[in-house]
Each structure stands twice: as C-alpha cells, then as structure tokens.
Amino acid sequence: MRTVKLTPETRKEILTSLLKRSTFQYGSYMDTVNRILEDIREKGDEALFAYTEKFDHVKLTKETVRVTPEEMEEGCRQVDPDFLRVLRRAADNIRDYHQRQVRESWITTREDGVILGQRITPLERVGLYVPGGKAAYPSSVLMNLIPAQVAGVKRVVMVTPPGKDGRVNPQVLAAAREGGVTEIYKVGGAQAIGALAYGTESIPKVNKITGPGNIYVALAKRAVFGYVGLDSIAGPSEILVLADETANPRYAAADLLSQAEHDELASAILVTTSPELAEQVSRQVDRFLETLSRREMIEKSLENFGYILLADNMADAVDAVNAIASEHLEIVTRDPFQVMTQVKNAGAIFLGPYSSEPLGDYFAGPNHVLPTNGTAKFFSPLGVDDFIKKSSLISYSREALQGIAEDIQAFAQAEQLTAHANSIAVRFEEEE
Amino acid sequence: MRTVKLTPETRKEILTSLLKRSTFQYGSYMDTVNRILEDIREKGDEALFAYTEKFDHVKLTKETVRVTPEEMEEGCRQVDPDFLRVLRRAADNIRDYHQRQVRESWITTREDGVILGQRITPLERVGLYVPGGKAAYPSSVLMNLIPAQVAGVKRVVMVTPPGKDGRVNPQVLAAAREGGVTEIYKVGGAQAIGALAYGTESIPKVNKITGPGNIYVALAKRAVFGYVGLDSIAGPSEILVLADETANPRYAAADLLSQAEHDELASAILVTTSPELAEQVSRQVDRFLETLSRREMIEKSLENFGYILLADNMADAVDAVNAIASEHLEIVTRDPFQVMTQVKNAGAIFLGPYSSEPLGDYFAGPNHVLPTNGTAKFFSPLGVDDFIKKSSLISYSREALQGIAEDIQAFAQAEQLTAHANSIAVRFEEEE
Q1: What interface predicted TM-score (ipTM) does this complex get?
Q2: Which position among B98, B328, B330, B368 bears the catalytic label?
Q3: Which pTM was predicted?
Q4: Residues A22-55: pLDDT tens digits?
Q5: With helix as H, strand as E and coil as C, how does chain A read?
C-alpha cells in the first residue's frame, strides 16, 4: 500500500479521490434509469417482465414472479443446517441490539388542559432490495429485515434479481425466512425500484425502500426519493483504521484487507502517528495478499483507494478521520475510548484490538448498513428509526387557548394571514 | 365547497387530484435547475451573484452578500417590540417541546468485555433556506432554527433571497436573532441550494439543508440529496378536518380556510359522517369568505383542492384519512383521542374543538414543518432527530471475540469473503 504523509494538501487530494466513488459521478446513467422508471410507471408488469428478460435473462409471468412456498422450502433445504444455526444466532444478536433502539410515544400534560406529545407509529409497507449475483449477502437481508420487524412494520416486500436459472439464492431465502418475510419477488435493478415506488399489477407500492444495490439501483432510488422514503444511498464499502504505535500491524493489515475485498471501489485507509507501524502494516498486507482468494480485486481497490496516512500527531490524525467520515472506523490506540470522544463523523466505531470490523458485519448486533462516502456527516446506520414515523399531538382546552389567543393572532397578523387569526377569534366571539 | 360522497372511486379521484401538487409534476423544470446547480458548482460566487442579479434584481459582491451586524441591528429595530415579545414567547414554547425530543447516547456492557452502544452527535454545519417575498414567515425561521440549536449544531448558515431593495425582511432577521443565528446570506432559489451543497468562496458547504421554498428550491434540494442531507421535500399546505355531528361548523369552516389561504395549491378537506355538518360547514365557509383578506387565493385553492367528503361511517372516514395522510389533521369528534388511535398517517394531529390548526403554526411548541402530499406515510415532523446523526459503538474483549470467532468465520465463508474470515483468524493464530 502506498504511504503518504498527512498534510492539508494530501488530505484534500485523498478526499477528492474518494469522492470519485460517489453515485453523483454517474449522471450519464440517469437517462437510462429515468426511462426504465417511466416505463414501469406507465406499463407496470409488462415493462417489469420485459426488463427482467433483457437484463436477467429470465422470463417471468404474473404466476411466476413471486417466490412460492415450495421454492422457499426447497431453497432453505439446500442451506447447510450449521449455517442456519449461525444465521439464527446472528439474528438474535441483531434483534437484541435493535430492541434497544425502540422509542416510545410520549405526552406531556398541563393542568390547564394542554396536552402535547409525539406519537410513534411503524411504517405500513416497506420494500427491501436485496442484490443478487456476487453481492448476495444473507447478512444484509437480516440487517434490513430485523429493524423493520422490531419497529412493527406489518408488510415487508422483498425484491431480488433471479439467477439465470430463475431462482433466488438459497441463503438469501433462508435469511428472509429468519427475518419473517415470505413476500419475495424475483425482480431486480432499477425496474424493481420502480415497481416498489409506483406499484404494478403484481407488486404492491410501498412507503419506503431500503437496501443496497448497484449503481442503477442507487440512481433509481435517488430518483424516487420524496415519492417514497429511502434509507440512504449506498456506496462502496470503506474502512479506516486509526492506530498508534500500540497497534498490532498484523491485525490492522487483515482488517484493511477485509474491506478491500468487497469490490474495486472499496476503500481501505490506515491513519497512524507511527512510521514503524506504517511500514509493518504495508509489509503484512503484502504477505496476506498471497493467501487470499480475492487477490485481484483487493489489489485493484488498494491501488485505487488504499492509503497509509502518516500523521504528525493524534490531533491531525483525528481531524483527517473526521474529514473522511468513514463507514467503518477502527480505533486501535492506547486509549481508544478517549480518542473516540474526538471523533465526529463515522458510521460504526470499533474500539480496541479485538473489535475487528467483520465482527460488525455479521454478529455483534449493530447494523452493517452504514453511511458511506462521507455521508456519515449527516446519515446514520440503518435502524429502527428508519421504519417508524412520528406525528405531533396537540390538544388545548378552551381556557388554555384563550390564554394565548392574542399572541397567536398577533403572529398571524404579522404574517398577514387573516384566516389564521380568524380561526382563533371565532372560538371566542359572542354567540350570535 | 363541493360536497362529495366518500366511495372507493371518489377517494381514488381525490387522491389522484391531490398528487397533482407534487414536485414530481415539475420534471420539465429539472433542466433549468440542473444547469443552475452545475454553474454554481463550477463557478462559485461568480455564478451565484449572476443568478441573484437575474432573478432577484440585486447586485451582490463578496462584501455585500452577507448580512452585516449593522443590517441585523437596523432590521430588528424596525420590528414592533410587541411582536418581538410574542416571538420570544413562541420561541420558548418551541424550545420546551423540542427539548423533550433530545435523546441520549447509550451503551450496554457485558461482563465478558462486550460493549455495544449508539452514540449521538450533532451535525456540524446546517444550511437553512428561508423563503422571501409573500412567503417570508418568521415562524418558519424559529421552527427550523430551534431544533438545530437544541440538537447542538454549532454552525447554522441561513440563506434568504433579498427584496428588491437588497435587504432581508426585518421580521425574518428578528426571528433569526431569536434563534441565535447571525450568519445570513442574501441569496435564494436553486442557486442558494447549490451554494450550500457545494460551497462557494463566500458561502460554506454544509452537511444538511432544511427549510421550505418554491418549486425550484424543492427540485434543487432533491437533486443534491445524498451529497448533503435534507429535511424533506416541502409541498403546498394541507388541512384535513375529521368531524362528526358534535363538531362546531363555524370552527371547522374557519380552520379549513386558515390553510386554504396559504396558496392556490393548498388543500382543505372536511371528512365527516354528518350530512348536517357538511351543509353547515359549506355555508359558514361562504360567510367567512366575504370578510377575509385573501379571498381570491382561498377561492382558487378551494376550487382546486377543497372537498367536503361525506362518509357512511367513522371507519370509512378514518380509512380515507389514512389514505390522504394529511399534513395537518384535526379530529373533532365525540371522543377524539379514541379516534386518534386508528389514525396511521398524519403530520400533526389536533384533538378537540379548541385545538385549531394555527395554534400549531406559531405557538404550541411542536414543529410546523410537517410532511405534505401524502408523505406523512414515511416522513415525520422536523425535529431534533433531523439535526443529529448516530454512530454504532462496538468493543469486544479477546475472550468475547474468541467465543464467536467460529460463527463469524462460518458466515464469512458462506459469503465467500475470505479476507473477512482472516481478520478474525489472525487474532487467534499461534505466535510465529
């Protein structure tokens, strides 16, 4: 891995380079995506099936688009029972963590008859996009389904592109069953996003769409934002390891590689104050590379978006961490919790030498759907909050309203909204 | 107002008609908006000032784009001191309500050294768009600023289009001061959204943009979503009054009119089980119209998007309420809290005869920035949650990691991610 001295200039260069991975770089695909969405909106199933035949090479009909109970059964039978047990244990941990995110509706009352509150209700229908092909991850199914389940969403609709044999990945089916979902449609790509946003004869319109996908899926999601809700726009995976001289270089190298293997756009960055560590990590990366199955992919992603950044001191290092706002951040320093207090922007923070990032991918419980590409500055990990909505509650007594009637009318008059003022006045006029 | 019998057909017609008000109907403006955004991105201030001259007829320079302390002072002096006191009282109520939304970071620990948690931190920089002209509402300034302040956002940047005299509305300045903001730029429209999203020489790039605006502002916000965070896409205002025979027709009529006066696209709908009430409300609306200052506007919006819907029974009425998912919902029935339990989708719910909607616009405390156009099915009122982000915290001891090492590796192998498995294995290998 290349080693770069951290300066304001190199920091800026690296940030610019990372942004090349943004979905905003793919504006030229937008016409294609818009055409697909428009077709789905106008022609429903007909267009949906035509695009599935074109892109996935599978012919669907109203009768075959949905995964049947028999297909579900057969798929799950193909999965190693040991793996099913692992899946179950992971699901338990994920459920446990997300249960802690559940929030209650609340009200506050005053003796003069004022009631104010915030009511929390689950979304009614959610669509979950699950990628197919090399990116078919059962863990991702659990991470999307369980928070929805915990939030109380009644109907979750899953879409996932079929393989060339017209079937859905068995592990994905097993994870769906673990997450309590049986409504699964064999469609993917921008056309599946369109179907969930607008509804077709076969596929119900949903209120919100979550789940990662390729660039067409990401662009289609952005195009329907506002028409439905979204989780966030997923980008390529990222890891940033912030380490001082106390870190084990072999662990750091292994963790950097674990993200670099995701795809060619993945990013793996070490920020360290220790020149010795920098050198050792670089060497360990080379050693591991010889043994890993996705070597080519990893080499490409390291070449494109892998850096070892040498910082003069921890303050500069943390500033860089905050500017990069990585999806995954490992803090491997003498006192990781203290360093964490300085971190402003990161999706998930892993503290100490035994908190390796893959722990968070599968098992610990926190969600692995995390903000990427600098969006940890404003987006959050997927969670129960993504599957609820709030309504304000307001109830006043006559007495309480009378007490502030003049103030409200003054405000309304100042904004020249006389019908607003009238709606208060009418309640205190003399009976006619 | 026209009275329509509620049937599945009329319900569908009305829903279709309301959606005509969606920003998605304005795709043809998108090219203009994209061009403006592109110009701002490439040319910064130069383009920003050129568009301000073109659209707002004001010449700006780096020296004059920002509101000076003197301009702030002068503006506030022009505002009636009585109104300043009303503003202060409203701000106190809004602050009080939003304080209750504040959430704490949390952790959970296990004796084997597992620490999991969720850390909440404020966004660093937020941009607030404040409309100018006829839609310059000081209440809106408070409703956006106070939750940001309560959340702990350090830097709030406000943009608002200048009047033809190059100045900012004095009430808006007074509200900004009340909300603790002094960084105000005299720019508006899509160009201001571009400046906040990309940054220019004069205007800092922010992490999130909130605040309502015209159609160009709404489309520009949607175009930069993902590059920055957004509150929601604001549409025209709406009120839905759900009433039975116990409701006062004069109050209901006054409340319907209070939203209809906002603009020609505003929607005011009464859903009732009582034919008598339907008739009386219709008559009262006509009577009030003769006295209200925005009569023409109101007549247009009632003609376009005003309905009295007669339902056979309360269950059908509530179903329609849930399908429409109104921004504001008043429940004026014999037992409004019981009816409320059936409501799934609404931005703010006003219960009982003395909870008129304008109470929520200014004074009660809950936010008046609410989901419109059916988006209450997935969006929520603006609040403290919009100005924070979450990070997951994960820390494992060696012992705890060892306990699940096999499971994680099994999961990683199932997903064919060997570098993921390696990152766990390396921590338990024999020392070399």
Answers
A1: 0.94
A2: B328
A3: 0.94
A4: 877 777 888 899 999 999 999 999 999 999 999 9
A5: CCEEECCHHHHHHHHHHHHCCCHHHHHHHHHHHHHHHHHHHHHCHHHHHHHHHHHHCCCCCCCCCECCHHHHHHHHHCCCHHHHHHHHHHHHHHHHHHHCCCCCCEEEEECCCEEEEEEEEECCEEEEECCCHHHCCHHHHHHHHHHHHHHCCCEEEEECCCCCCCCCCHHHHHHHHHCCCCCEECCCHHHHHHHHHHCCCCCCCCCEEECCCCHHHHHHHHHHECCEEECCCCCCCEEEEEECCCCCHHHHHHHHHHHHCCCCCCEEEEEECCHHHHHHHHHHHHHHHCCCCCHHHHHHHHHHHEEEEECCCHHHHHHHHHHHCCCEEEEECCCHHHHHCCCCCCCEEEECCCCCHHHHHHCCCCCCCCCCCCHHHCCCCCCHHHHEEEEEEEECCHHHHHHHHHHHHHHHHHCCCHHHHHHHHHHHCCCC
